[in-house]
Design brief:
This protein is mainly beta. It has helices at 159-163, 168-172; strands at residues 2-5, 12-15, 18-21, 24-27, 41-48, 52-58, 65-71, 73-80, 91-97, 102-106, 110-116, 120-127, 136-138. The strands form 3 sheets. The chain has a 6-stranded antiparallel β-sheet with strand order 1-2-10-7-12-5, with no helix packed on it. A 5-stranded antiparallel β-sheet has the order 9-8-11-6-13, with no helix packed on it. Strands 3-4 form a two-stranded antiparallel sheet. Strand 3 (18-21) and strand 4 form a beta hairpin. The longest helix is centred in the C-terminal third of the chain and has 5 residues, at 159-163. The protein starts with a strand and ends with a helix.
Amino acid sequence: MKLIKTKIDGLLILKSQIFKDKRGYLREVFRKDILNTNFPFDIMSYSKKNVLRGLHFQSKFPQAKLITVTHGKVLDVAVDLRKNSKTFGKYFSIIISQNDNFSFYIPENFAHGFLCLSKSCTINYRCSRFRNAKYEKTLAWNDPDININWPIKNPILSEKDKNKNQSLRELFKL
């Protein structure tokens, strides 16, 4: 397993080796000796094509996440919400599919979201902290100040993502 840095400090790609044979394949997803992070629980998400989930984060008790696509293909996005970071408000996006041999590590204090690009997709989130609904926030997926290059104009959104989102300016009183 190998760590690959992205253009935003802290965001990492964990490239793993795939061992294939006539039965299928075996792939390591996480090794504590490579990424020294405590992950007390996992979440699995299933979505249909054109579903956009996010951009979610917790304002207190922030979560680091390790994202692995186990079925389908997604455009995965992380937005830097670390106020003292030189990349505050910037985003990084990556396409991940079940055929790739990597996972995407997102540290604490990032908003996270994804768009399902295939007929359906299943994503495994390994999280560093438990979900705390009281502090869950949604950054607007279409915030013009962030200007994420989503390949869709009218995604399928949850009511929360559609009606209870805020811009970066609103969330951080900029």
